[in-house]
Design goal:
Elements: E1 5-8, E2 12-15, E3 19-20, H1 32-44, E4 49-51, H2 60-69, E5 77-82, E6 84-86, E7 93-95, H3 99-113, E8 121-123, H4 132-144, E9 151-154, H5 158-165, E10 172-174, H6 185-194, E11 197-198, H7 213-222, H8 226-237, H9 250-258, H10 266-273
Helix pairs in contact: 1-2, 1-9, 7-8
Length: about 280
Protein backbone atom coordinates (compact mmCIF):
# COMPACT_ATOMS: atom_id res chain seq x y z
CA UNK A 1 0.00 0.00 0.00
CA UNK A 2 1.36 3.48 -0.84
CA UNK A 3 2.80 5.61 1.95
CA UNK A 4 0.21 7.93 3.48
CA UNK A 5 2.67 10.74 4.26
CA UNK A 6 5.34 12.80 2.52
CA UNK A 7 7.97 15.23 3.80
CA UNK A 8 7.84 18.42 1.74
CA UNK A 9 11.32 19.86 1.37
CA UNK A 10 12.56 16.78 3.17
CA UNK A 11 11.44 17.99 6.58
CA UNK A 12 7.76 19.02 6.59
CA UNK A 13 5.48 15.98 7.03
CA UNK A 14 1.94 16.07 5.60
CA UNK A 15 -0.70 13.53 4.71
CA UNK A 16 -0.51 12.80 1.01
CA UNK A 17 -4.18 13.40 0.29
CA UNK A 18 -4.81 17.10 0.73
CA UNK A 19 -7.60 19.58 0.08
CA UNK A 20 -7.81 22.32 -2.54
CA UNK A 21 -9.73 25.26 -1.10
CA UNK A 22 -10.38 27.06 -4.41
CA UNK A 23 -14.05 26.05 -4.58
CA UNK A 24 -14.98 27.29 -1.11
CA UNK A 25 -17.62 30.01 -1.65
CA UNK A 26 -16.55 33.45 -0.46
CA UNK A 27 -18.47 35.96 -2.59
CA UNK A 28 -21.71 36.09 -0.60
CA UNK A 29 -21.81 36.55 3.20
CA UNK A 30 -24.53 33.88 3.47
CA UNK A 31 -22.14 31.31 1.94
CA UNK A 32 -19.44 31.84 4.54
CA UNK A 33 -20.78 29.40 7.18
CA UNK A 34 -20.80 26.63 4.57
CA UNK A 35 -17.22 27.37 3.52
CA UNK A 36 -16.09 27.39 7.14
CA UNK A 37 -17.86 24.10 7.82
CA UNK A 38 -16.16 22.39 4.87
CA UNK A 39 -12.71 23.62 5.92
CA UNK A 40 -13.23 22.45 9.48
CA UNK A 41 -14.53 19.08 8.33
CA UNK A 42 -11.39 18.61 6.21
CA UNK A 43 -9.24 18.94 9.30
CA UNK A 44 -11.57 16.67 11.29
CA UNK A 45 -11.08 14.02 8.61
CA UNK A 46 -7.32 14.17 9.14
CA UNK A 47 -6.28 16.33 6.20
CA UNK A 48 -3.05 18.16 6.97
CA UNK A 49 -2.40 19.87 3.62
CA UNK A 50 -4.68 22.67 2.39
CA UNK A 51 -3.96 24.63 -0.77
CA UNK A 52 -5.15 28.18 -1.42
CA UNK A 53 -3.99 31.24 -3.38
CA UNK A 54 -4.18 35.01 -3.49
CA UNK A 55 -6.13 34.66 -6.75
CA UNK A 56 -8.93 32.72 -5.06
CA UNK A 57 -11.31 35.55 -4.25
CA UNK A 58 -8.48 38.10 -4.18
CA UNK A 59 -7.45 36.85 -0.76
CA UNK A 60 -10.94 36.01 0.50
CA UNK A 61 -10.14 32.30 0.36
CA UNK A 62 -7.16 32.79 2.65
CA UNK A 63 -9.32 34.80 5.04
CA UNK A 64 -12.06 32.18 5.27
CA UNK A 65 -9.47 29.48 6.04
CA UNK A 66 -8.07 31.62 8.83
CA UNK A 67 -11.54 32.26 10.22
CA UNK A 68 -12.31 28.56 10.12
CA UNK A 69 -9.07 27.09 11.40
CA UNK A 70 -6.96 29.65 13.29
CA UNK A 71 -5.26 28.95 15.64
CA UNK A 72 -4.07 26.16 13.39
CA UNK A 73 -3.36 22.58 14.49
CA UNK A 74 0.39 22.02 14.74
CA UNK A 75 0.39 19.46 11.95
CA UNK A 76 -1.64 21.55 9.46
CA UNK A 77 0.08 23.08 6.42
CA UNK A 78 -1.77 25.80 4.54
CA UNK A 79 0.11 26.60 1.36
CA UNK A 80 -0.73 29.63 -0.75
CA UNK A 81 0.28 30.99 -4.14
CA UNK A 82 1.32 34.43 -5.41
CA UNK A 83 2.14 35.89 -8.81
CA UNK A 84 -1.33 36.58 -10.26
CA UNK A 85 -2.93 39.92 -9.41
CA UNK A 86 -6.10 41.80 -10.30
CA UNK A 87 -5.97 45.23 -11.87
CA UNK A 88 -7.69 47.91 -9.80
CA UNK A 89 -8.56 49.73 -13.03
CA UNK A 90 -9.91 46.91 -15.23
CA UNK A 91 -10.69 44.15 -12.73
CA UNK A 92 -8.82 41.68 -14.92
CA UNK A 93 -6.34 39.12 -13.58
CA UNK A 94 -2.81 39.06 -14.97
CA UNK A 95 0.57 37.53 -14.21
CA UNK A 96 2.80 39.78 -12.15
CA UNK A 97 6.13 38.44 -10.96
CA UNK A 98 7.78 41.79 -10.33
CA UNK A 99 9.63 41.77 -7.01
CA UNK A 100 7.60 44.58 -5.45
CA UNK A 101 4.33 42.84 -6.32
CA UNK A 102 5.46 39.46 -4.96
CA UNK A 103 6.64 41.05 -1.71
CA UNK A 104 3.31 42.84 -1.29
CA UNK A 105 1.33 39.65 -1.97
CA UNK A 106 3.35 37.73 0.59
CA UNK A 107 2.74 40.40 3.21
CA UNK A 108 -0.99 40.32 2.45
CA UNK A 109 -1.03 36.50 2.71
CA UNK A 110 0.72 36.60 6.08
CA UNK A 111 -1.87 39.04 7.36
CA UNK A 112 -4.87 37.18 5.95
CA UNK A 113 -3.70 33.78 7.17
CA UNK A 114 -2.65 35.28 10.54
CA UNK A 115 0.82 33.77 10.50
CA UNK A 116 4.37 35.08 10.71
CA UNK A 117 5.71 32.62 8.15
CA UNK A 118 4.31 30.79 5.12
CA UNK A 119 5.74 27.30 5.44
CA UNK A 120 5.22 26.64 1.71
CA UNK A 121 4.77 29.45 -0.81
CA UNK A 122 4.21 28.64 -4.47
CA UNK A 123 4.66 30.89 -7.50
CA UNK A 124 1.24 30.60 -9.16
CA UNK A 125 2.63 31.11 -12.65
CA UNK A 126 5.98 32.20 -14.06
CA UNK A 127 5.66 35.74 -15.41
CA UNK A 128 7.30 35.79 -18.86
CA UNK A 129 7.76 39.56 -18.63
CA UNK A 130 9.99 39.32 -15.54
CA UNK A 131 13.31 37.45 -15.42
CA UNK A 132 12.89 34.16 -13.56
CA UNK A 133 15.94 35.00 -11.47
CA UNK A 134 14.19 38.14 -10.25
CA UNK A 135 10.99 36.27 -9.36
CA UNK A 136 12.66 33.39 -7.55
CA UNK A 137 15.35 35.64 -6.13
CA UNK A 138 12.63 37.67 -4.45
CA UNK A 139 11.06 34.54 -2.96
CA UNK A 140 14.50 33.37 -1.85
CA UNK A 141 15.05 36.72 -0.11
CA UNK A 142 11.70 36.37 1.62
CA UNK A 143 12.71 32.86 2.70
CA UNK A 144 15.99 34.17 4.05
CA UNK A 145 14.09 36.89 5.91
CA UNK A 146 11.96 34.25 7.62
CA UNK A 147 8.66 35.10 5.93
CA UNK A 148 8.71 31.95 3.79
CA UNK A 149 9.78 28.44 4.74
CA UNK A 150 9.90 26.62 1.38
CA UNK A 151 9.35 27.62 -2.24
CA UNK A 152 7.22 25.88 -4.86
CA UNK A 153 6.15 26.40 -8.48
CA UNK A 154 2.92 25.91 -10.40
CA UNK A 155 2.26 25.00 -14.04
CA UNK A 156 5.87 24.61 -15.15
CA UNK A 157 7.66 22.44 -17.66
CA UNK A 158 10.52 20.11 -16.79
CA UNK A 159 12.92 22.61 -18.37
CA UNK A 160 11.52 25.47 -16.27
CA UNK A 161 11.81 23.36 -13.14
CA UNK A 162 15.44 22.60 -13.93
CA UNK A 163 16.15 26.30 -14.52
CA UNK A 164 14.42 27.25 -11.29
CA UNK A 165 16.43 24.74 -9.30
CA UNK A 166 19.61 26.48 -10.44
CA UNK A 167 18.35 29.59 -8.65
CA UNK A 168 16.74 28.27 -5.47
CA UNK A 169 15.70 25.01 -3.81
CA UNK A 170 12.25 23.95 -5.02
CA UNK A 171 10.12 21.98 -2.57
CA UNK A 172 6.95 21.47 -4.62
CA UNK A 173 5.38 21.67 -8.06
CA UNK A 174 1.65 22.11 -8.65
CA UNK A 175 0.59 21.14 -12.19
CA UNK A 176 -2.60 19.98 -13.87
CA UNK A 177 -2.55 16.19 -13.85
CA UNK A 178 -4.96 13.28 -13.55
CA UNK A 179 -5.63 9.75 -14.75
CA UNK A 180 -6.70 10.83 -18.22
CA UNK A 181 -4.50 13.92 -18.58
CA UNK A 182 -0.81 13.06 -18.18
CA UNK A 183 0.74 15.86 -20.21
CA UNK A 184 3.05 16.70 -17.32
CA UNK A 185 4.40 13.18 -16.79
CA UNK A 186 7.97 14.47 -17.52
CA UNK A 187 7.57 17.04 -14.75
CA UNK A 188 6.34 14.37 -12.37
CA UNK A 189 9.34 12.20 -13.28
CA UNK A 190 11.69 15.10 -12.53
CA UNK A 191 9.98 15.68 -9.19
CA UNK A 192 10.22 12.01 -8.31
CA UNK A 193 13.95 11.95 -9.13
CA UNK A 194 14.58 14.96 -6.87
CA UNK A 195 12.06 14.03 -4.12
CA UNK A 196 10.02 17.16 -4.86
CA UNK A 197 6.34 17.13 -3.88
CA UNK A 198 4.03 17.04 -6.91
CA UNK A 199 0.58 18.51 -6.16
CA UNK A 200 -1.77 17.71 -9.05
CA UNK A 201 -4.75 19.98 -9.53
CA UNK A 202 -7.83 19.07 -11.59
CA UNK A 203 -7.34 15.63 -10.06
CA UNK A 204 -10.43 14.04 -11.59
CA UNK A 205 -10.85 15.96 -14.86
CA UNK A 206 -13.79 18.06 -13.65
CA UNK A 207 -15.63 15.01 -12.32
CA UNK A 208 -15.88 13.25 -15.69
CA UNK A 209 -13.85 10.21 -14.70
CA UNK A 210 -16.96 8.06 -14.63
CA UNK A 211 -17.42 8.68 -18.35
CA UNK A 212 -14.66 6.14 -18.91
CA UNK A 213 -16.12 2.64 -18.98
CA UNK A 214 -12.98 1.10 -17.51
CA UNK A 215 -12.96 3.52 -14.58
CA UNK A 216 -16.65 2.91 -13.93
CA UNK A 217 -16.10 -0.85 -14.08
CA UNK A 218 -13.23 -0.77 -11.61
CA UNK A 219 -15.24 1.48 -9.30
CA UNK A 220 -18.06 -1.07 -9.34
CA UNK A 221 -15.63 -3.90 -8.57
CA UNK A 222 -14.27 -1.99 -5.57
CA UNK A 223 -17.66 -0.71 -4.39
CA UNK A 224 -16.22 2.78 -4.78
CA UNK A 225 -16.93 5.87 -6.89
CA UNK A 226 -15.04 6.77 -10.08
CA UNK A 227 -13.65 9.81 -8.30
CA UNK A 228 -12.25 7.64 -5.52
CA UNK A 229 -10.65 5.32 -8.08
CA UNK A 230 -8.95 8.26 -9.79
CA UNK A 231 -7.63 9.63 -6.51
CA UNK A 232 -6.42 6.19 -5.42
CA UNK A 233 -4.60 5.85 -8.74
CA UNK A 234 -2.83 9.17 -8.18
CA UNK A 235 -1.69 8.09 -4.72
CA UNK A 236 -0.50 4.76 -6.12
CA UNK A 237 1.14 6.22 -9.22
CA UNK A 238 4.09 7.92 -7.49
CA UNK A 239 5.17 8.40 -3.86
CA UNK A 240 5.72 12.15 -4.45
CA UNK A 241 2.15 12.79 -5.63
CA UNK A 242 0.01 14.77 -3.17
CA UNK A 243 -3.46 15.19 -4.71
CA UNK A 244 -5.44 18.26 -3.64
CA UNK A 245 -9.03 17.63 -4.78
CA UNK A 246 -11.33 20.53 -4.07
CA UNK A 247 -15.03 20.82 -3.31
CA UNK A 248 -17.56 23.03 -1.60
CA UNK A 249 -19.54 20.01 -0.37
CA UNK A 250 -18.94 18.08 2.83
CA UNK A 251 -20.36 14.95 1.21
CA UNK A 252 -17.89 15.18 -1.67
CA UNK A 253 -15.09 15.99 0.76
CA UNK A 254 -15.83 12.82 2.70
CA UNK A 255 -15.99 10.84 -0.55
CA UNK A 256 -12.61 12.20 -1.64
CA UNK A 257 -10.96 11.57 1.71
CA UNK A 258 -12.11 7.94 1.76
CA UNK A 259 -10.09 7.35 -1.41
CA UNK A 260 -6.95 7.20 0.73
CA UNK A 261 -8.15 3.83 2.06
CA UNK A 262 -8.81 2.32 -1.36
CA UNK A 263 -6.35 -0.44 -2.28
CA UNK A 264 -5.53 -1.08 -5.94
CA UNK A 265 -4.26 -4.52 -6.83
CA UNK A 266 -1.47 -4.76 -9.42
CA UNK A 267 -4.07 -5.96 -11.94
CA UNK A 268 -6.35 -2.98 -11.32
CA UNK A 269 -3.40 -0.61 -11.40
CA UNK A 270 -2.34 -2.00 -14.79
CA UNK A 271 -5.83 -1.50 -16.17
CA UNK A 272 -5.87 2.09 -15.00
CA UNK A 273 -2.36 2.74 -16.27
CA UNK A 274 -3.60 1.78 -19.73
CA UNK A 275 -6.14 4.59 -19.83
CA UNK A 276 -4.98 7.65 -21.75
CA UNK A 277 -6.40 10.72 -23.43
CA UNK A 278 -8.68 13.50 -22.32
CA UNK A 279 -11.82 12.69 -20.38
Amino acid sequence: MPSTTFRIGGDLPVGRLGFGAMHLPTEKPEDRPSAIAVARRAVELGITLIDTAHMYGQGANEEVLAEALHPYPKDLLITTKVGVVRSAETGEWALNGRPESLRAEVDHALRRLRVDRLELLQLHRIDPETPLADQLGTLRDLRDAGKVGRIGLSEVTAAELAEAREIVDIASVQNRYNLTDREHEPVLAACEAADIAFLPWRTVAWGKAGDRAEVAAIAAELDATPTQVCLAWLLDHSPVVLPIPGTSSIAHLEENTAAADLVLTPELRARLDGIAGAA
